[in-house]
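Key result, reporting period 2: structure in, sequence out.
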């Protein structure tokens, strides 16, 4: 490279020497230049062929998690949901207590996380619900937000569990928001994501911050309902948790629960990735293996 730069400098000097005084015609100079590029000529310039096209710059691609997150944000964006973000290092109030998960609540056991040594009140957030708490704190209804982000759990790393993963949660608080709105919004969402023929079902569930709560399944996109390992031979795959915002949570943030109602939902982005791209090992997402990432070049 150094040698090539020196040679270019030399050529520049030669051109500068010729052009001003006209000692050499342009044609003569062209012939001299050509002889330097002659394959028979000696020196480093021998192998340069200026007529060849340059090396193409290899194009990268979006990470599959980013691809799926962007699609989710886009679909909810069309329904009027705006993106809200919050810190990954949270305090106990926003991550647990304000969300109806007081200290010693058994539901905290399912969300063991990492605590900051200097201040045990600080922790790595276990869900993006903490962003909902921060938005309700500073904004009055109507609230219509979607919160994508990274979350953490103290889990042993395996194909099915990791110490960090990604979630997208949504929150809609206004007057007269009903369970029918929740069902229709989520049905529209999965139709946009997986196709119009998708079927859904709701199963009663428990979350401390919603009442009533439900988990939503879709018919398995991999086996079409006949049964496979992904759907555990049931034909249905759980895709998200949802429910009507618990009145106590609204009161925690000074929102009049007799006037306003709302619904909330949350899903794991890796889960949707698994269904869309059939990735069965969570660890692949964070190993930075180019062979894995390259497979998503055309998936936009
Ligand atoms: Zn299946």
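The corresponding designed sequence is given below.
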């Amino acid at each position: 490279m150094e040698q090539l730069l020196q040679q270019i400098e030399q050529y520049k000097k030669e051109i500068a020497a010729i052009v001003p005084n006209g000692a050499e015609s342009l044609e003569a100079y062209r012939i001299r230049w050509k002889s330097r590029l002659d394959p028979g000529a000696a020196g480093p310039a021998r192998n340069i062929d200026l007529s060849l096209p340059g090396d193409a710059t290899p194009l990268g691609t979006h990470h599959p998690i980013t691809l799926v997150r962007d699609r989710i944000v886009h679909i909810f964006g069309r329904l009027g949901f705006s993106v809200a973000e919050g810190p990954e290092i949270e305090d106990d109030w926003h991550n647990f207590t304000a969300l109806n998960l007081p200290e010693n609540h058994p539901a905290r056991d399912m969300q063991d996380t990492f605590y900051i040594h200097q201040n045990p009140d600080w922790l790595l957030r276990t869900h993006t619900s903490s962003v909902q708490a921060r938005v309700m704190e500073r904004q009055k209804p109507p609230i219509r937000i979607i919160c994508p982000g990274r979350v953490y759990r103290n889990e042993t790393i395996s194909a099915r569990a990791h110490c960090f993963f990604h979630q997208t949660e949504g929150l809609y608080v206004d007057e007269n928001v009903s369970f029918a709105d929740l069902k229709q919004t989520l049905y529209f969402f999965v139709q946009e994501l997986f196709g119009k023929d998708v079927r859904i079902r709701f199963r009663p569930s428990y979350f401390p911050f919603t009442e009533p709560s439900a988990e939503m399944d879709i018919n398995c996109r991999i086996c079409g309902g006949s049964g496979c390992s992904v759907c555990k031979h049931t034909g249905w795959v759980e895709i998200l948790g949802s429910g009507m915002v618990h009145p106590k949570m609204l009161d925690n943030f000074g929102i009049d629960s007799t006037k306003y109602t709302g619904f909330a939902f949350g899903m794991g982005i890796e889960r949707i990735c698994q269904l869309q791209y059939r990735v069965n090992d969570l660890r692949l997402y964070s190993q930075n293996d180019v062979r894995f990432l390259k497979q998503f070049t055309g998936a936009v």
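The chain has a mean pLDDT of 85. Residues 2-21 form the longest helix (20 residues). This case is discussed further under Risks and Mitigation.
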